[in-house]
From TrEMBL:
Gene behind this protein: LOC107466037
Residues covered by the Tf2-1-like SH3-like domain: 38-71
InterPro entries according to UniProt: SH3_Tf2-1 (IPR056924)
Any Pfam family hit: SH3_Tf2-1
Protein name: Uncharacterized protein LOC107466037
Gene source species: Arachis duranensis
Amino acid sequence: MAPYEALYGRKCQSPLCWYEAGEKGLLGLEMIAETTEQILERVRLVAYRMALPPHLSNLHDVFHVSKHRKYTPDASHVLEPESIQLKEDLTLPVAPVRIDDTSIKQLHRKEVSLVKVAWSRDDIEEHTWKLESEMRTDYPHLFSGN
């Protein structure tokens, strides 16, 4: 598990380098070099707390320089930006595909029904345990066979 995922209980999906066609995207050390006036404090030897614009206020504001590498340009390396739709809270909408397993957990005097949900986005599949009652309310089509 990545440190960010361990701290916040979700994967980091930072939109820092997403940009519209025609705009220049700042990456890695370029971003640090061009935003030195936005550095609030040095947290550690290679980590800095940055002042983020209001629309990025929900992102973690500490950047680790050691995690960035200088990109060596290569003419054969062409990236086409993909069009994605973000929710208001800057998260990607991911739809559940199926229910893979069920479990009942005993919490004190209460039983809680959980389901193991398979989520898919761009041919990447992940699994999480969710409350069955919430999944039945939000995604009733997943339970039509049960």
